[in-house]
């Protein structure tokens, strides 16, 4: 037996030959349950963003300085909690986007003349303050590496 025949037999036996992949069946992609759960979490966070926006719109005008601070604190808690629950920036962006769309929809006047926000300083502070809180919470969640978890720092 020559040197080439022995190398040819070894390559066929190890499965690296040309016909090695023909006998295998193609693998089907596995559906990750984590992807479905994460999408459900984002939808839940968006619904909570709508609810926090409606509640904040009603409370910020009722008790002006305290209600405004309470409404912004509720928005900050939702955005930060969403980022921590989803362990991603999207966890803060989903409720923030739903919050912003809801607040803008509530601030437009209708043909009947009804609207939720008055033309005062509190409404503008709620809108601009909520946007600032959303940006701060989203930016703060970007700096936290998710793969490290709780890492002890050097002594």
From TrEMBL:
Q: Does the keyword Transmembrane helix apply?
A: yes
- For the region Disordered, give the residue spans: 1-31
- Tell me which UniProt keywords the record has, alphabetically: Membrane, Transmembrane, Transmembrane helix
Q: Does the keyword Transcription apply?
A: no
Question: Which chain regions cross the lipid bilayer?
Answer: 36-56, 62-79, 86-109, 115-137
Species of provenance? Streptomyces ochraceiscleroticus
What is the name of this protein? Answer: DUF6113 family protein
Compositionally skewed regions (Basic and acidic residues) per UniProt: 1-11
């Amino acid at each position: 037996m020559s040197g080439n025949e022995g190398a040819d037999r070894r390559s066929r036996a190890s499965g690296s030959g040309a016909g090695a992949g023909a006998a295998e069946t193609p693998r089907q992609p596995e559906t990750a349950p984590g992807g479905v759960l994460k999408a459900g979490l984002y939808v839940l966070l968006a619904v909570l963003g709508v609810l926090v926006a409606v509640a904040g719109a009603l409370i910020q005008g009722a008790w002006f300085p305290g209600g405004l601070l309470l409404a912004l604190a509720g928005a900050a808690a939702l955005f930060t909690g969403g980022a921590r629950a989803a362990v991603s920036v999207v966890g803060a962006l989903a409720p923030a986007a739903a919050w912003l769309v809801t607040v803008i929809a509530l601030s437009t006047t209708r043909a009947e003349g009804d609207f939720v926000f008055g033309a005062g300083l509190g409404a503008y502070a709620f809108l601009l303050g909520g946007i600032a809180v959303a940006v701060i919470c989203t930016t703060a969640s970007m700096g936290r590496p998710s793969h490290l978890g709780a890492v002890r720092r050097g002594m």
